[in-house]
Amino acid sequence: MPDRTSAQPGTALGTLFVERNLDLVGKLYQRSVYPAALDVAGGKRLSSPLVVDLDPTTVCDLACPECISSQVLNHGQIGKDRIVRLAHELAESEVRAVILIGGGEPLLHRAIGEIIEVLHGAGIQLGLVTNGTQIHRHIDQLATKLSWVRVSVDAGSADTFQSFRPSRGKRSAFPQVIDNMRLLASRKQGRLGYSFLLMQRFDEDGKVTHSNYDEVEQAGLLAREIGCDYFEVKAMLDEDHYTVNQRAEDIELVETQIARLRELEDDAFHILYSSNWQAVRNSSDPVQPKDYHTCAVTELRTTVTPTGVFVCPYHRGNPKGRIGDISQMTFAEMWSTADTTVIDPSEDCRFLCARHATNQEIALLPERPAAGGLAEDFDPFI
Length: 382
Description:
Elements: H1 14-20, H2 34-41, E1 51-54, H3 80-91, E2 97-100, H4 112-121, E3 125-130, H5 139-145, E4 148-152, H6 158-164, H7 174-187, E5 191-198, E6 200-202, E7 208-211, H8 216-226, E8 230-235, H9 248-262, E9 270-273, H10 275-281, H11 297-300, E10 301-305, E11 308-310, E12 322-324, H12 331-337, H13 345-348, H14 356-364
Parallel strand pairs: 1-2, 1-10, 2-3, 3-4, 4-5, 5-8, 8-9
Antiparallel strand pairs: 6-7, 10-11, 11-12
């Protein structure tokens, strides 16, 4: 079994969490990551990616109108037997971290508990992005076997939650989600995050008809009271992943609330900006030019879904970004024949990409002296 020595759940909190775990470029200089990054910089293929984004299912129990994954929803799931075998295949590979995500809601897959057990037992670090409705069903495993859980809440009240994240029934799922987060916070060994995606709806004249912008502070206070480690503000993207610039008064509304929340920060609770909200608040151009034609990060991490394997989450469901299918072959067989260069970032990734700076850094590695001060492993989620 591969040796995996990454930090265990719960070890990278406080200032260390803020300064290191969010530094995607800095993560390249970990002892177990740097050799792989250097190989990729030199044009070599890896025996497996280091990180896998795994979509167990495309089924979701919410019906969010603004869901950016709407085009890939309700296309089935990876079969129970196949996904358990996949977990064992990843366990025998050089994969160091798996993010359970979607697509759909990962906790709705009936084999999710077994998947977590297999991967965690192999020393693979686990992260989870969830809507929070099913946390209570898997509380023991989520509390003890995951490095982090990020819940997409996007509201500070039941009414706003029901507007932007409606359940398929009549009642808002907000109380259940908050109760679940509170339960997990009381038992967690890893990190728990409250994710807030800023959303607005407009009428034909461009007037705002619905917004959650005025609930940022309310949601942040709730996140702290629940026991979350961080509260993250994110900007809404269009269906092609481009940021949507906002009116100055709306940015000011959000920033004023964030400033008040920052006064409550301490070693146990942090306010985070996503890179796309930073771009919006700085009125950056939604188009991010790239002067390279292959994405090095696609060799370091990949996205496995029920409908195929894709170069990254940005291209989930995009036929051009599809590099394989684990339904007909093992993960190792798929990866050995995958062409991770099918996407040209200069043409296909003109949106703001969180791994752009990582790609730029990898390109420079061969020109630099051998790194002498590599960091001990602290976060495999590169």
